[in-house]
Design goal:
Elements lengths: L3 E4 L3 H13 L5 E4 L6 E2 L18 E3 L1 H8 L2 E3 L6 E3 L4 E4 L2 E4 L2 E4 L3 E3 L18 H11 L4 E5 L3 H12 L3 E6 L11 H14 L2 E4 L3 E7 L2 E6 L4 E4 L1 E4 L3 E3 L2 H5 L8 E3 L10 E3 L4 E3 L7 H15 L13 E3 L6 E4 L8 E7 L2 E7 L5 E8 L5 H7 L6
Parallel strand pairs: 1-2, 1-9, 2-5, 9-20, 11-12, 11-17, 12-13, 19-21
Antiparallel strand pairs: 3-4, 6-7, 7-8, 10-18, 14-15, 15-16, 22-23, 23-26, 24-25, 25-26
Helix pairs in contact: 1-7
The chain binds flavin-adenine dinucleotide.
The site of flavin-adenine dinucleotide (FAD) has 35 residues, from helix 1 and helix 7.
């Protein structure tokens, strides 16, 4: 019997495997992953430092345990380089591997900002446990860190690095942090709280060059200001990993295009998680992929099941000033109604019919989240 093959051992790959094994204990399952196959919760990478957790404490199981628990064959440190959708084969470790059904759970690649300077290649980014281990090593004995990007991950790292005693500069082109997700007033509340914690902001600015300087780096900003730091972390966004699918002739847009059954343009190949564009939506967060994994497991077990998305707010892990956000749909017209309070902001996005379409709650307003989540429409019914 040809196996179901899953590419990727992140939350998407492992969750679909786990869900499948609840429904089907016997179909051969083969997981191939470019990393070391340890199971860890990626969101913890941006709040482990302040909690004093070492990288190895973030992994709850190694690849051998995962293979045993899932009754799966697991190939670690193996990058799949090509696949042939019509022949139902892929190439890994120089071998041709056959599959009955293939699941792409390939994740996303950190975007590298266009930087000049002789140390541009030394800028860190953290998108998996191995990156994080390298980042932690780079921080050893160091004091000053520059974070490029004031989005969700940049803000979380800024808060976490400060909590662990580092001096932090954040450089971001927006007028306020999280500017792609929440209205400016809400962003300013977070900016102020992190500034009170000691974060130095360089908003409306970008990094032009990173150069080596003694044991650290000199950053030259677009406005010609100069910052000297020991470590540079880039957190400017992620791009779905689509090359393998594109090269195999599958339909690719921002992500690997799949329908509500997580099916790509080839009927026996599925995709979910950060690499996938599900019914036109690229949502690189945990809740969407969990919903996808449950639906896909049923489909793989013989019961075709479309994914449904409830409202799925994201909690930004900035304990200095927590934020809960459910951004309005990209295509949605409407406006934010913002109430700025002394210790938080409540921002609600209404469409023309005054239906709630999005929300951003910060600080003390986060306490209201259950009330507003109930009012938010489902994302995919
Ligand atoms: C620092 C950080 C904090 C976050 N915090 C939150 C949060 O608080 N809440 C939230 O909802 N989301 C958060 N996210 C997003 C969330 O973690 C991701 O959406 C999720 O973990 C993605 O899982 P994935 O399995 O799709 O991708 P990944 O975890 O990236 O897994 C991809 C897998 O594919 C493998 N792979 C790639 N290419 C190949 C290849 N060619 N051959 C074989 N294997 C390959 C990789 O080795 C890896 O195993 C955070 C993300 C980051 C980076």
């Amino acid at each position: 019997m040809k196996p179901i093959v899953i590419l990727g051992s992140g939350l998407a790959g492992y969750t679909v495997a786990r869900e499948l094994r609840k429904l089907d204990t016997h179909t051969p399952l083969h997981i191939i992953t470019a990393d070391d196959g340890r199971f860890y919760s990626k969101p913890m990478l941006s709040n482990a430092l302040g909690k004093g957790m070492r990288p190895e404490q973030l992994a709850s199981a190694d690849s051998a345990k995962m293979a045993a628990d899932l009754n799966a064959t697991l190939w670690t440190d193996t990058r799949v380089t090509a696949m042939d959708a019509n022949a139902h084969t892929l190439i890994a470790r120089g071998e041709t591997v056959e599959y009955a059904k293939l699941v792409l759970a390939l994740g996303a690649e950190p975007v590298r900002p266009p930087l000049q300077g002789n140390a541009a290649a030394e800028v860190c980014s953290v998108n998996d446990l191995m990156d994080y281990t390298r980042f932690r090593r780079a921080l050893e004995g160091k004091k000053r860190v520059a974070v490029i990007g004031g989005g969700l991950i940049g803000c979380e790292f800024a808060n976490d690095l400060r909590a662990a005693g580092f001096l932090v500069d954040v450089i971001s082109p927006g007028k306020a942090p999280l500017d792609r997700l929440i209205p400016e007033q809400a962003g300013h509340a977070l900016e102020k709280a992190l500034a009170n914690l000691g974060v130095t902001w360089h908003l409306g600015n970008t990094v032009k060059a990173v150069d080596k300087r003694d044991s650290g780096y000199r950053l030259t900003l677009a406005d010609a200001a100069v910052i000297e730091v020991d470590v540079v972390l880039s957190a400017v966004g992620l791009r779905p990993r689509t090359e393998l699918a594109r090269d195999a002739g599958l339909e690719v847009n921002r992500g690997i295009v799949v329908d509500r059954q997580l099916r790509t343009s080839h009927p026996d190949i599925y995709a979910l998680g950060d690499c996938a564009e599900v019914a036109g939506l690229v949502l690189p967060f945990v809740m969407p992929l969990m919903n996808c994994a449950r639906a896909l497991a049923k489909t793989l077990a013989g019961e075709p099941t479309p994914v449904s998305y409830p409202a799925m707010p994201v909690l930004v892990k900035t304990p200095a000033h927590p934020v809960v956000v459910s951004p309005p749909p990209l295509s949605g017209t409407g406006q934010w109604e913002v109430e700025v309070r002394e210790d938080g902001v409540r921002a609600l996005f209404y469409d023309a019919a005054h239906t709630l379409r999005g929300m951003a709650l910060t600080g003390s307003a986060v306490a209201e989240k259950t009330v507003w989540i109930k009012e938010l429409p489902v994302v995919l019914a």
